[in-house]
UniProtKB/TrEMBL annotation:
Designated name of the protein: Glycolate oxidase subunit GlcD
Keyword Oxidoreductase: yes
Record flagged with keyword Oxidoreductase: yes
InterPro entries registered for this protein in UniProt: FAD-bd_oxidored_4_C, FAD-bd_PCMH, FAD-bd_PCMH-like_sf, FAD-bd_PCMH_sub2, FAD-linked_Oxase-like_C, FAD-linked_OxidoTrans_Type4, Oxid_FAD_bind_N, Vanillyl_alc_oxidase_C-sub2
GO function term, MF aspect, one: FAD binding
Species name: Pseudovibrio exalbescens
Cofactor dependence: FAD
Domain FAD-binding PCMH-type span(s) in chain numbering: 51-229
Keywords, ordered alphabetically: FAD, Flavoprotein, Oxidoreductase
PROSITE patterns linked to this entry: FAD_PCMH
């Protein structure tokens, strides 16, 4: 698994596998427990396929009661549990451990309630992202967050990673579109947070759980917000002689107070790959291609398209085409959404990175990424959510060539360090997982990381849920519970203590 270390497996748990499997089979009968190596193979990795590990066993619960009993059993016997949705995580978030039970939630795949007067849909976590839109689109509604893997990724996994998508610039990430959750804690306790109402009382635990990467609990039910389809939506394809000019145009559009429904950017390598794969009609004589979608009332869309066109001209654009039909708009997006598999056709392997930067830094970062590519001797295709500065560099390599995976990892680490250096963050929507775990100190101090781990301890004091992810060094909860005394002085000495 290259240079990424995972927690050493418990030899006692490995020796007790047969008993653990037998105990789990008492909770889930039939084919609900998988324990043979050949049957475990499909679960050894997620979409970060460079890293693999066969789990101790896989369980496929179908009811909340089964989830609760499994977690209660694992809590009592200190067995690690890795929650898994559709396995589309690009950060290794669902990578199992040798001594862990992997809990697949894909049998929780029902839409439970469609309540359009309240603009809410209640689903189980195994329902796909696109499945929600399909369930309500006949009534003119849709679910806004739309990651490129939306045809396959599950809503439970979207919550774990706080997934976004091409339309998240205007309509928000998963955290902005989830209204309520049912969740099972590691102890087996079932809790409910929020609901169909707009705001939940008390602490905002929903925001805490969106992006918690399976470290705090297992989601068993989700209430999401759905939106009415805009009156008009049109997309523009805009080509530029350089990525730097395209990046500056992105900053200028946002600076002008225009918030597109979506604004994406692809460089030459990604354009060529996507066009060859989808035949979306992309121009092949440009170095960067921007897709800008405006939605709302028709008059507003027409005016904003004129403003965007003017800003593009000021940044030396050489190509402009505006969709005239809904089919044409969808075709523009089809190329972008297929960019990841398209790049997979031109390289045996690639790492899909995920960092976020201030929009104004786009031209600078794109230029420095070219220098980093030369330093590491690898090509990089850029596809990203330009409007919110969420980069998705695709680092191309061949794992069959000795040293190339390590070079790709080093290249990716340098890109993420660059993101932090210019005032950005390590992840926008893919999560930390194992991919960025050891880079967390680039962004957070030791004090910051300990404070985050205190939250983990409040939910899972034995560190049994998804261990080995997010935190580069894991502290015991008892150690984190101590109050720090500096030079004999308690922090905030004037605050009354009881």
């Amino acid at each position: 698994m290259s240079g990424i270390a995972m927690p050493k497996p418990s030899q006692e748990l490995l020796r007790n596998k047969a008993q653990i499997v037998k105990d789990l089979q008492r909770i889930i009968s039939g084919e609900g427990v998988i324990c043979e190596e050949i049957e475990l193979r499909p679960y050894e990795t997620d979409a970060l396929t460079a890293y693999r590990q066969i789990p101790l066993a896989v369980v496929l619960p179908e009811t909340v009661e089964q989830v609760s009993q499994i977690l209660k059993y694992c809590y009592a016997n200190e067995v690690k549990v890795v929650p898994r949705g559709a396995g589309t995580s690009l950060s290794g978030g669902a990578l199992p451990l040798a001594d862990s039970v992997l809990m697949s939630m894909m049998k929780f795949n029902q839409i439970l309630d469609i309540d359009l007067p309240n603009r809410a849909v209640v689903v189980q976590p195994g329902v796909t992202n696109l499945g929600i839109t399909h369930a309500v689109q006949h009534e003119g509604f849709y679910y806004a967050p739309d990651p490129s893997s939306q045809i396959a990724c599950s809503i439970g996994g979207n919550i774990a990673e706080n997934s976004g998508g091409v339309h998240s610039l205007k309509y928000g990430l998963t955290t902005n579109n989830v209204l309520g959750l049912e969740m099972v804690l590691m102890s087996g306790e079932v809790i409910r947070l929020g609901g169909k109402h707009l705001d939940a009382e008390g602490y905002d635990f929903l925001a805490l759980l969106a992006g918690s990467e399976g470290l705090l609990g297992v989601v068993t039910e989700v209430t999401v917000r759905v939106l009415q389809k805009p009156e008009t939506a049109r997309a523009a394809l805009i080509g530029f002689p350089s990525s730097e000019q395209a990046g500056q145009c992105v900053a200028d559009i946002i600076g002008a107070g225009i918030i597109p429904g979506g604004m994406e950017l692809m460089d030459k390598l990604a354009i060529d790959a996507a066009e060859d794969f989808v035949h979306a009609g992309y121009p092949l004589d440009v170095e960067a291609l921007m897709i800008v979608e405006l939605d709302g009332p028709e008059a507003e869309v027409d005016r904003l398209l004129q403003e965007v066109s003017s800003l593009a001209t000021q940044n030396n654009s050489t190509y402009l085409r505006v969709s005239e039909t809904e089919d044409e708009r969808n075709t523009f997006w089809a190329g972008r959404k297929a960019a990841f598999p398209a790049v997979g056709r031109i390289s045996p392997d690639y790492l899909c990175m995920d960092g976020t930067i201030p929009r104004k830094a786009l031209p600078q970062v794109l230029k420095r990424m070219q220098v980093l590519g030369e330093k590491h001797g690898l090509r990089c295709a850029n596809v990203f959510h330009a409007g919110d500065g969420n980069l998705h560099p695709l680092i191309l390599y061949d794992a069959n060539n000795p040293g190339e995976l390590e070079a790709a990892e080093a290249f990716g680490a340098d890109i993420l360090r660059l993101c932090v250096e210019v005032g950005g963050v390590l992840t926008g929507e893919h999560g930390v997982g194992i991919e960025k775990r050891d880079l967390m100190p680039e962004m957070f101090s030791e004090t910051d990381l300990k404070q985050q781990q205190r939250v983990k301890c409040a939910f899972d004091e034995k560190h049994l849920l998804n261990p080995g992810k997010v935190f580069p060094v894991l502290h015991r909860c008892a150690e984190l519970g101590r109050m720090h005394v500096h030079k004999g002085q308690l922090p905030f000495p004037n605050i009354p203590r009881f």
